[in-house]
Amino acid sequence: MNARWTPSSWQSSVAAQQPKWPDQNELEHSLKQIASYPPLVFAGEARSLLAALGQVASGNAFLLQAGDCAESFEEFTAVNIREKLRVILQMALVLTYSTGVPVVKVGRIAGQFAKPRSSDTETIGGVELPSFRGHMVNDPAPHDESRVPNPQRLVQAYHQSASTLNLLRAFTKGGFADLNRVHAWNQEFVTTSAEGLRYEQVAGEVERALAFMRACGVDTEIHSALHQVDFYTSHEALLLGYEEALTRQDSLTGNWYDCSAHMLWIGDRTRQLDGAHVEFLRGVGNPIGCKIGPNTTTDFVLSLCETLNPARVPGRLTLISRMGADKVEQGLRPLIRAVRDAGHPVVWACDPMHANTFTASNGRKTRHFDDIIREITSFVLAHRAEKTWPGGIHIELTGDNVTECLGGAESVSQEDLDTRYETVCDPRLNARQSLDLAFRVAELVRAAK
Ligand code: PEP
Ligand code: CO
User: Residue 269 CB: number of other CB atoms within 10 A?
Assistant: First the structure.
């Protein structure tokens, strides 16, 4: 590790999972362009999220981090963004109402375009092709030409992130997220389902609580917390050239912030202690996360905490465990204990998606709703046993009525997977499965309090 950090000090370490850009001059040109563009978020916003996550670390709030596995250049519409926000707001309402603690809302959105891959190639229809690495890098069409990394895509990802963030800011500050509109967040195809009806009940109670406050003489109009929400953005900081180009020095504090998103995380494939991703993120002031897979050792986690959060700032580091439903008890408990005993004020979040993926008989990559719930249940129980706070969940979802994950109240079956399988990468929960999950998580967390 370099003693002195700079936005480019990562370049002296090995960076895993970087695309093989065919033309370095073109890459440099795109990165220079991005470096000259305005930041997407401000340092002050990243600090607000840090403070909110500090509350999660101390057990006084809950983190809901959710969105696409990979955003798409093709599915780029206002409706798409709105529906994703809508289901996240619904989930947050259910969780807040039931647990009685604030829910910190962080989207996997407005920048989640680059994907790490287990293999450099994939075989489609018997033909071996370079792997698809996210729309920020190449095109998923199954041809050799489409798979060539194109640095113009970095610029396109920047612009799509800017527009997405702009709409999210408008929705969350301009009336869409107003608590007086809780009923409007229920989508038509969800309203008549069991979880939709359950949501209507919660929404009705929130409405009555607001009416009660007004009847008591509280002027609910003047409280902005009832009319607006703080919604933050995040993505995996995978392509370090892009992240460096958006890293700016804050004029207020003199510290460096990666202004591509409020929060960045390190993936399970790029978390080498002496690697470039850890080196890069240790120097930015944003709250950061790191995925923790099933083979993680206590020594590794403690070194990671020391490297990424030497000052032990609560909320600075979120450890996102993704163990697999059967491995939480054995894999996670020793880590929780070690981090707790070392006094590191981390946020523990559960990603119940990435270690529960398998290929269905028709070749579709999928996950079963029951495995997802089982992993979260074991996660909450492990924290209860260690007397630590199960701080949050990290999930892949969409507001649409897709059929990508099996099970849930509507019992999506292997045969159903072909009906609406639209993800550009991993299978996501649909709106009904997401709401169903929120109710179950709310019960688990309430019991843990
Ligand atoms: C992801 O979050 O989409 C991902 C690739 O996760 P992981 O790094 O945990 O495999
Ligand atoms: Co994924």
Answer: 17
Please check whether residue 330 lies inside any domain of the structure.
Answer: yes
Please give the pLDDT value at position 121: 96
Q: What pLDDT shows up at residue 1? A: 54
Distance 379 CA to ligand 1 centre (A): 18
Any bridge partners for residue 412, and if so which? 407
Evaluate: CB of 133 within 6 angstroms of ligand 1: no
Tell whether ligand 1 has an atom less than 6 A from the beta carbon of residue 108. no
Amino acid at 133: R
Token pair in block for residue 367: 């996950």
232-266 burial, b at 16+ Cβ within 10 Å, e below that, comes to: bbbbbbbbbbbbbbbbbebeeeeebbbbbbbbbbb
Kindly give the distance from the C-alpha atom of residue 172 to the centroid of ligand 1, in angstroms, as a whole number: 27
Q: Which of 234, 351, 356 is the best mutation target for the ligand 1 pocket, counting ligand atoms within 8 Å of the beta carbon and taking the most?
A: 351
Cβ–ligand 1 distance for 277 under 6 Å, the answer: no
Kindly state if the Cβ of 404 falls inside 6 Å of ligand 1: no
CA 126, CA 305: separation in Å to the nearest integer?
44
Residue having the nearest C-alpha atom to atom 10 of ligand 1:
268
Nearest to 202 by CA among 185, 189, 214, 218: 185
In a domain, 383, yes or no: yes
**pLDDT score of 409:** 83
pLDDT reported for residue 433: 97
pLDDT of residue 2: 52
Q: Which tens digit of pLDDT belongs to each residue from 75-119?
A: 999 999 999 999 999 999 999 999 999 999 999 999 999 999 999
* 85 Cβ contact list (under 8 Å, min separation 6): 107, 168, 171, 172, 176, 177, 231, 399
Q: Judge if the beta carbon of residue 291 lies within 6 A of ligand 1.
A: yes
Total domain count, the chain? 1
Q: Is residue 248 within 6 Å of ligand 1 at its C-beta?
A: no
- The list of the chain residues with pLDDT below 50 reads none
Residue at 410 is within a domain = yes
In a domain, 253, yes or no: yes
**Domain of 310, in residue numbers:** 9-177+228-448
Q: Whose C-alpha lies nearest to ligand 1, atom 4? A: 267
Residue 413: other Cβ atoms inside 10 A: 12
Q: Is 354 in the pocket of ligand 1 (CB under 6 A)?
A: yes
Predicted TM-score (pTM) of the model is 0.98
What CATH number is associated with residue 387? Answer: 3.20.20.70
